[in-house]
């Protein structure tokens, strides 16, 4: 049985029967595409009888295995055939590309030209070497002279190297400083917000600005004759120094004296050289642990101080800018004429005379004229030209207000022409006539609140204060809180709702009917004194609250002062 199985297993195809396509690379595509003859194994009748033997089931299983094996061998041969065809095609294409490249580049011609150039170069080098050797033989001195020349060259080289070394040791560091290097852009790390760091920086700023503020205080004290003897001595010394041409040496001497005193103070001496006595302010010890409300209040205080400081600085810078940008031509024209006069004087008069005139004017202005103007404000408002110019210079917010006021006046005049008579009634001034037609964003003021024409907002609240009205008597959310603008007139407190609709949403309160007015804090959780005003009237069970007011203190003072004025006038009228 085993012998029969061996015969069946090894009746497959022999490897010698296949064509070796790799060894015949020049075979054509037709040759590669021909099918390879395969020898199909033939079974004898004896073998078929053995396969059909019902007594041997193992023989049938082995027969099916042999057929599967023959089938897989046939598939593998087909796969190898496909790979060989692909390889032959790639080889054919590569040979074609190589032939084209050879035809285009003409590599053989380039090689020939390269060989010619090499030969030419070799010939030239030989000629140059021959010429050099001839020159050297012609110019070669005797041996003794050559040795002397070599020694001189060595000495000169040693001297130059020493000189270079000495120069580099002395001036090399300075030469290196002038070497250009790329700038390094370093980004400073910002510190996180901290209450302790904030208070420390505020104190540092205050201590750093203290010498400057003390210097300004001493100058103002000299100008105001705070100490009569000191101001008189300073005035006399200054005028004599200017008269004799010693003004600049005087200032330099004062600077040296100040530095000398600072040196003595730094060495431990207790010296006080100040016209105005310094008042020592109590220094609060820094708190280690702050509550949330204290931190929030500290941030608000610092923000308020920074806001005021930045506002003053911005006003100064904007006034200087507007002075030079001809925003108000009549003011800039005076500066223009003064500069031309100073230029012509410096051109035609000697510097000694110009310096004497300027120094005398500065001394008289600082010690005498400013003293009189500060004591007499009316004279200053009339005759102090620099003060008048500085006060009349506008800032950018003032320019915006002026432009908006001009536009509103034009709109008022155009609207008033349609329904206002040409002549004003008798007994009305210009201010009353202009106030009769004060308008808000939605229309005329008196028409919105159903008031008389002579009722208009006060000058302080001409544009009103943004706030929200909290009416705790109402239950509906839409009526409980309303956003709008609050106005104060001579007799009324008017609230205009921001939502468009009927005038019923607006609120008008007579100042005489107010029974109580006080500052109010809507949310007790937040730090500070709050941002609201509570107004009590007989018609409301709970006070009306005007909350979320940024300028709460200003509004409260205006309302309270007008309320006191109206109530006192009503009381005096009732008594009479």
TrEMBL record:
Region Disordered, residue ranges:
24-58, 131-157, 408-434
List all membrane-crossing ranges. Answer: 247-265
Which residue stretches does the UniProt record annotate as biased composition, category Polar residues? 136-150, 410-425
The way it spans or sits in the membrane comes to:
Multi-pass membrane protein
The record's annotation in Pfam families points to: GRAM
Keywords, comma-separated and alphabetical: Apoptosis, Coiled coil, Endoplasmic reticulum, Membrane, Mitochondrion, Phosphoprotein, Transmembrane, Transmembrane helix
Q: Where in the cell is it found?
A: Endoplasmic reticulum membrane; Mitochondrion membrane
What is one Gene Ontology biological process annotated in the Swiss-Prot or TrEMBL record? apoptotic process
Recorded GO cellular component terms are: endoplasmic reticulum membrane; mitochondrial membrane
Q: Where is the composition biased (Basic and acidic residues)?
A: 44-53
Alphabetized CDD domains for the sequence: PH-GRAM_GRAMDC4
Domain of life of the native organism: Eukaryota
The residue ranges of the GRAM domain are 443-521
Q: Does the keyword Nucleus apply?
A: no
PANTHER family per UniProt = GRAM DOMAIN-CONTAINING PROTEIN 4
Share what the entry says about its subunit structure, partners included: Interacts with RTN4 (isoform B).
Put simply, this protein is called: GRAM domain-containing protein 4
| Protein's organism | Callithrix jacchus (White-tufted-ear marmoset)
């Amino acid at each position: 049985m085993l012998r029969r199985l061996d015969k069946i297993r090894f009746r497959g195809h022999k490897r010698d029967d296949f064509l070796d396509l790799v060894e015949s690379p020049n075979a054509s595509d037709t040759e590669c595409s021909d099918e390879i003859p395969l020898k199909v194994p033939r079974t004898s009748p004896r073998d078929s009888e053995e396969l059909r033997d019902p007594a041997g089931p193992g023989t049938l299983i082995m027969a099916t295995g042999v057929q599967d094996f023959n089938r897989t061998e046939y598939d593998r041969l087909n796969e190898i055939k496909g790979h060989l065809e692909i390889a032959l095609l790639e080889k054919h294409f590569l040979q074609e590309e190589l032939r084209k490249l050879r035809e285009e580049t003409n590599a053989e011609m380039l090689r020939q030209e390269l060989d010619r150039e090499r030969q030419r170069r070799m010939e030239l080098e030989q000629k140059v070497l021959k010429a050099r050797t001839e020159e050297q033989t012609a110019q070669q001195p005797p041996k003794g002279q050559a040795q002397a020349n070599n020694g001189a060259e060595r000495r000169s080289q040693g001297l130059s190297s020493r000189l270079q070394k000495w120069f580099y040791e002395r001036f090399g560091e300075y030469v290196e400083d002038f070497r250009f290097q790329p700038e390094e852009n370093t980004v400073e790390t910002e510190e996180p917000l901290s209450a302790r760091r904030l208070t420390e920086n505020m104190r540092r700023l205050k201590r750093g600005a203290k010498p400057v503020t003390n210097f300004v205080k001493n100058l103002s004290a000299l100008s105001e004759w705070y100490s009569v003897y000191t101001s008189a001595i300073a005035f006399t010394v200054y005028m004599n120094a200017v008269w004799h041409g010693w003004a600049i040496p005087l200032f330099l001497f004062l600077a040296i004296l100040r530095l000398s005193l600072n040196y003595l103070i730094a060495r431990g001496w207790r010296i006080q050289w100040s016209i105005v006595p310094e008042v020592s302010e109590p220094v609060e010890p820094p708190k280690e642990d702050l509550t949330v409300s204290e931190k929030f209040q500290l941030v608000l205080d610092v923000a308020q101080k920074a806001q005021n400081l930045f506002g003053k600085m911005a006003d100064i810078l904007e006034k200087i800018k507007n002075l030079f940008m001809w925003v108000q031509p009549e003011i800039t024209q005076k500066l223009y004429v003064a500069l031309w006069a100073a230029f012509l004087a410096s051109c035609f008069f000697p510097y000694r005379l110009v310096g004497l005139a300027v120094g005398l004017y500065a001394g008289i202005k600082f010690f005498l004229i400013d003293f009189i103007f500060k004591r007499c404000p009316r004279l200053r408002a009339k005759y102090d030209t620099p003060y008048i110019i500085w006060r009349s210079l506008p800032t950018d917010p003032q320019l915006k207000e002026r432009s908006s006021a001009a536009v509103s006046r034009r709109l008022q005049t155009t609207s008033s022409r349609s329904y206002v008579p040409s002549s004003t009634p008798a007994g009305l001034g210009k201010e009353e006539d202009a106030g009769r037609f004060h308008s808000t964003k939605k229309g005329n003021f008196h028409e919105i609140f159903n008031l008389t024409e002579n009722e208009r907002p006060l000058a302080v609240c001409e544009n009103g204060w943004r706030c929200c009205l909290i009416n705790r008597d109402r239950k509906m959310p839409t009526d409980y809180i309303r956003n709008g603008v609050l106005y104060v007139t001579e007799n009324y407190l008017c609230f205009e709702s921001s939502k468009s609709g009927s005038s019923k949403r607006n609120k008008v309160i007579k100042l005489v009917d107010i029974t109580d007015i006080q500052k109010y804090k809507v949310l007790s959780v937040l730090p500070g004194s709050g941002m609201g005003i509570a107004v009590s009237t007989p018609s409301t069970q709970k006070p009306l609250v005007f909350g979320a007011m940024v300028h709460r203190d200003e509004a409260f003072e205006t309302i309270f002062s007008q309320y006191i004025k109206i109530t006192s006038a009503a009381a005096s009228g009732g008594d009479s």
